Amino acid sequence: MRFAMYAEREWRRDAPASTATTEREAPDGDRRAATGEAAVHDFAATVARAVDADEVRRALAAAARWAAGDAASWLAPDDEAARGVATIPVRAAGGRVWGRIEVGRPGGDAARHATAVRRLETVATLAALAFDRLDRAGRAARPSAEGGEPAPEPALHDATLLSAVLPFAIGQARRHEEPLSVLFIAIDQLRGVRDLLGAAEADRVVARVGARVAGLLRSSDLVGRLDDDRLMAILPRAELHDARQVGEKLARKAAADPALSGLPLGISLSVGAAELPTSATTLGGLLDAADAALSEARRRTSKPAARS
Description:
This protein has two domains: 15-141, GAF domain (Beta-Lactamase, 2-Layer Sandwich); 178-302, 2-Layer Sandwich (Alpha-Beta Plaits), CATH 3.30.70. 48% of the residues lie in helices and 15% in strands. The two termini are 38 Å apart. Strand 6 and strand 7 form a beta hairpin. The chain is α+β, with helices and mostly antiparallel strands and 308 residues long.
């Protein structure tokens, strides 16, 4: 199943991977949009370096004011203030809501704030990732008594969050002239698990494998579950040969861990890798290249060994 994010974000599959334009290059009418994109990039850089949640909140409040002026405000989850014409939740992996951004005033004109809302949706996604990172780091650093809270599992995100982060990650890569790779990961035995044990058990297998994959990658990498139960990993600053090596490592680790599925069943992974700009120069092309690489990996996995 192809990503739901194409329809949700109305991306053109032949669109460039980033439409970032510098203010110097942009026509007068486009300079405001170019400046807006630069501000979102600056926000991303700030929260990526943040060492505590207060720093993220300050940056988020500043970004909200920049995007919509006095018409936007940052609210904590338990704040009962009146809602605006648009509410943007800052929702992390697992569904936890860290707060919300209110845009406009009750009864106001929603169309007037449409551009600000689009930008703030990206800001909210980046802020949620930062809050989630800081929360997991804090819980991992706290000493726990014997039998206390276990170490937090790495976050496994969903397709909705990936759909917001991937175009931004591609824009960052192009902005800084850095490579960016993606992995498509399939659990080869998943169809059999679903047929024999049901959809609920297959769902648990995907969650366990996804958490394990996230734990094997860098903290800057992002792992998510797609709508068709495949996994996708976004690897910033990774060239194609690096991504392929990562995929091989993931496949080896899965094969060497018979308990990974949580069932009396060993599993294997097929992994396809693609890189921007080596494999493709557009967003749709990058995903298609990773999809094709995954299909080739699955064909190799299922091909019977030749008899001697």
